[in-house]
Amino acid sequence: MLELSAVSVRKRLEGVSWTAAPGQLIGVLGANGAGKSTLLACMAGQLSPDSGGCYWQQQQVSRMTTQVRRQVISYLPQHPSVSAPVSVGHVLATGLVNLRLPVALAERVSQVAREFNLTNLLNRPMTQLSGGEQRRVHLARSLSSDSALALCDEPVAGLDLYYQLRVMELLQQRARSGQLVCIALHDLALAARYCDKLILLHQGQLLASGQPMQVLTTDNLRRAYGIEARWWCDDDGVAMLPTLCKGEHSGDL
Questions:
Q1: At 47, which CATH number?
Q2: What digits encode the pLDDT tens for the residues 45-92?
Q3: Contact 40, 153 (CB under 8 A)
Q4: How many domains does the chain have?
């Protein structure tokens, strides 16, 4: 069980409380600057709240040792980077080397590469990959450990349509296998289609949480994003047509 208890970070989050059980894919939504990345960093133990706390199985995440956190939590930040010309295979291996694995390291790297369609890139330097390819490598590395709690900040940013859907399916599969997967997203249609539950942040506060159609209401979208939205839903998924609220939004260019 993941529990957030009145998590506050000065000028970024204010009193966010929320709980989630394993086996779910959770979408963290909100406009730019709403606090999504800050919240995920607190969950991952990369940032200590000024007050309140994040707890995994009743253990405060910020007080876990680095080794324990690495075994329990996987974390993909919003802007991961590798400046050295190391290979894709090396990057994947570094995500596994400190873990106790039931299979040999090379075999596990091959498994992860196949899952994320990276086999033909294993010997390529990271610096020679496109932005989308690098994103897939970092995502594969963060999810390779099969940790109990997986946190991904904008995992589909910069990916083409095929890989957006493929990554969302993989994240959903992780959740169905028993992991708790929490991801920050900007694509509301993907969030509604794949996520079991959503939390919506607005100016650092929790505006709404629950099932997608309970959260993505006209009033919530108008308040959080300054948009109106029309939804189409059927057995194959959802689509959305957003329009700007006339004369309301503070984010004018």
A1: 3.40.50.300
A2: 999 999 999 999 999 999 999 889 988 999 999 988 776 789 999 898
A3: yes
A4: 1
- Which residues make Cβ contacts (< 8 Å) with residue 12, sequence separation at least 6? 35, 38, 204
The residue segments making up the domain with residue 156 are 2-86+129-216
Beta-carbon contacts of 36 under 8 Å, excluding residues fewer than 6 positions away, are: 28, 29, 30, 153, 184, 201
Return the SS3 of 76. strand
Whether 40 is covered by a domain: the verdict is yes
Is 246 within the bounds of a domain? no
In angstroms, rounded to a whole number, what is the distance separating the alpha carbons of residues 115 and 144? 10
Taking each helix axis from N to C end, the angle separating 131-143 and 105-115, rounded to the nearest 10 degrees, works out to: 130
Q: Look up residue 159 and give its two tokens.
A: 């990916």
Contacts of 170 (CB under 8 A, 6+ apart): 115, 116, 143
Nearest in space to 189 (alpha carbons), one of 236, 223, 250, 226 = 236
Report the interhelical angle of 131-143 vs 161-176 (nearest 10°).
Answer: 10
Q: Where are the alpha helices (DSSP H) in 73-198?
A: 88-94, 105-115, 131-143, 161-176, 188-194
Q: What is the pTM of this model?
A: 0.92
Average pLDDT over residues 218-245: 88
Percent of the chain with pLDDT over 70: 94
